[in-house]
Amino acid sequence: MIATENTILITGASGLVATALIEELKNCGYNNLVLCTREDCDLRKFEAVKRVFHQAQPDIVFHTAAAVYGIGGNAIKKGSIFLDNILMNTHVIEAAREVKVKKIIAMGTIAAYADTNAVPIKEEYIWNGSPHSSESSYGHAKRAMLAQLLAYYENYGMDFAYIISTNLYGSNDKFDTQFGHVIPSLVRKCHEAKLNGHKAVIWGDGSATRDFLYSKDMARALVLIMNSFTGAINVASGRKTSIREVADVLTDLYQMQDGIEWDKAKPQGRIFCEMDLSHLRALGFRPLYSMRDGLKETVEWYQLNFDKNLVRL
């Protein structure tokens, strides 16, 4: 059990995962938090990262920062996605080693898995086959982070957890219709369609399915894992939801029935990945939020912050 007086450093502190995590940590009595945003430190520059870590002397590190662009951006930014993530991950882990952290908890991704018929997908399958072509550079960079963590655990005894994360959504996300992930992109499209009185155009035909997890549920899982797990672990809701189901909830929340137009010429992404959640459930984790409840809170946050010009686009 990690004592509440420990110093916890969080990268990507203004992002989707970290903002929910910060709230959860404080609720659990962890108040000695060092928040590292993009404005505080460019994680691609090792000297800058070292300065932050040596000054903070953290006991625990949550590495949630990443260069993420969604299915649209992944297709045209493969080089920069790979380089930026490799640099950030490598620098954070090495700096953590230098200051002798007790444990680092790093955000991986379901994109690191290859398409497979061997379901549910267990954590050890992460090395089987290449990541899906639509997210290959991001997936490879995240795999390399796991390889580094394993090497440092074996060589230096640095404890770690590597979160193989499903598709996340919630407040403080990147609501970018071109380079954002599925749900934040849909929220923005529906919001703008409602404002402008037109239909929201959504890629595909709505039949593609995903496992979605609300950021507040992810935060709860991260605190459990910090205290109780070492190694790679799948984190997901365990629920299979189609894009059409998500769109139906959003159009209901925005009161814009029949407000969707499906662009079937656009890609739908990879097939559904059912993740084995045995390790996660053994920790006692179950999601608290339904899809509708999570989306309702996300939409309410987006509407409030859109009016204040605080939404990341």
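^ that was protein a. below is b, sequence first then the tokens
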Amino acid sequence: MLLSRLPALAPARDPAAVPGIWADAAADLRYVATHRQIRVLVLTLFLLVAFAAVDNVALVFLTGDQLTAGPVGYGLAVSAFGVGMALASMACARLARGRSPVALLIVAISATGAGTLLTGLAPVLAVVIGAQLIAGAGNAVENIGYDTVVQDLVPRPLLGRVFGIVGTAAQLGAGLAYAAGALLVDLFGARTTFVLAGAGTLAVLLVLVPALRHDRHGDPGPPSDDPVLAFSLGGPAYRRRRESSAVSE
């Protein structure tokens, strides 16, 4: 009912000019492959989810087996993560306006990594709840940060297709996290699994930060034979339009 109140959105491209789903997919992959910053965003999102989503497997064993907190303890810890996400999302609607989405993303990943690491080191359930609150807040702001940085870098006619690849990277990372998390918990226990996941999450910044600081003009241009990609993300008109917009909500 709420979505039905949204106004109609004008298509970014003439539907008659769309070459087909496979040609679109190939153009999308080609665009990501030839633009360093977008390529690194996709790769780091995959790695980030592959590390951070391990907590979905390990948390029940940490609260149940190591802290003997039972179902109630697990429920409180999971709820704290959700509360952190909700509070951070609402805060970003006001506090993130006019701020650098790159800085927002760096702070968010740091919070997620720190919260995950602290969860593994927590001696009691109360500390786990606080750590999960921090990790949840970081996760929410990551979503906002990644989406905003992608919108800042990608021309509008390509946004839907690039977001398709971004979403695919996240889902592949989650699948790897669930498989690897089960193995890690079995081999090393839940605490060590959380420590490894938190350290891996923080290590993603070593790849992401240098790439986002890279001069846009250092990226290769889009293929000249693709009319859609001929709209360069580095074009001055496009940069002025994006720089004038607020951080995505």
